[in-house]
Amino acid sequence: MPLSTVDRSVLEPVIRRLSALRPLSTEARASLEYAMLEGLQRVGSGEDLISEGDPVDSVRVVLSGWLCRYKTLEDGRRQIVNFIFPGESCDAHAFLLPVMDHSIATVTPVIYSEIKRARFESLLAGERSLAEAFWCETLVNIAIQREWAINLGRRVAVERVAHLFCETFERLRAVGMVDGNSCVMPVTQMDLADATGLSIVHLNRTLQELRAAGLIILRERMLTIPDLDALKNAALYSPSYLQLYRRAEATR
């Protein structure tokens, strides 16, 4: 559903994330903001924004809300392969391929901007800092997928879930969307299970273990981390792959 008006502050997570990857010129920031305002859209929760096999002719940049990337097996089993948070794009260069190889669904109601391919390519051609920032974002997304592969292949259940919480907190903090040591956590236990490759029963036991150790407080769709360093130690977590940590720390 197109939006006619929106508070310009909703654009800030995008500018903040890209600027953390590459400093944006004043002209680049203004051009991107104008392009995003032209293509504002709203979609409800639980809907596919794009499905596996669909052609791609635009770039979707998330302004508010959560989405997930997922693949579904023929028997209906789903694997969430990443979450997409405010400030992030849904594959900035996916239009270079004929069709999508995975689906992207909304976890919450989402506001996003849809920038058509020709408009996006014109933006990048005219603003080198924008082109570099979006390519850096693509490289960071690849690094995130490597970490998720390690999560599923080598980390035990407690480490997997703790790692997911650490990463989520760091990615949201980088765009100014945490409150002290708390952040929103609007996903269901089924979502968490599908993201960590655990059964619901195993996921529930793992959450209880993290709670009992005093590492997390998960209540009313909010995650509180009393001691982030302790949770990082439990997860064997290092945020260096996000390429955002020092800049995020410097802006707090």
TrEMBL record:
Domain Cyclic nucleotide-binding residues, every copy: 20-124
Organism superkingdom = Bacteria
Q: What SUPFAM superfamilies would the database entry show?
A: cAMP-binding domain-like, Winged helix' DNA-binding domain
Report keywords, A-Z.
DNA-binding, Transcription, Transcription regulation
Q: Name one GO molecular function term.
A: DNA binding
Q: Which GO terms describe its biological process?
A: regulation of DNA-templated transcription
Q: Which Pfam families match?
A: cNMP_binding, HTH_Crp_2
Q: Would I find Metal-binding among this entry's keywords?
A: no
Q: Where is the HTH crp-type domain?
A: 155-229
Name of the protein in its database record = Cyclic nucleotide-binding protein
Q: Which organism is it from?
A: Bradyrhizobium forestalis
Q: Tell me the lineage of the source organism.
A: Bacteria, Pseudomonadati, Pseudomonadota, Alphaproteobacteria, Hyphomicrobiales
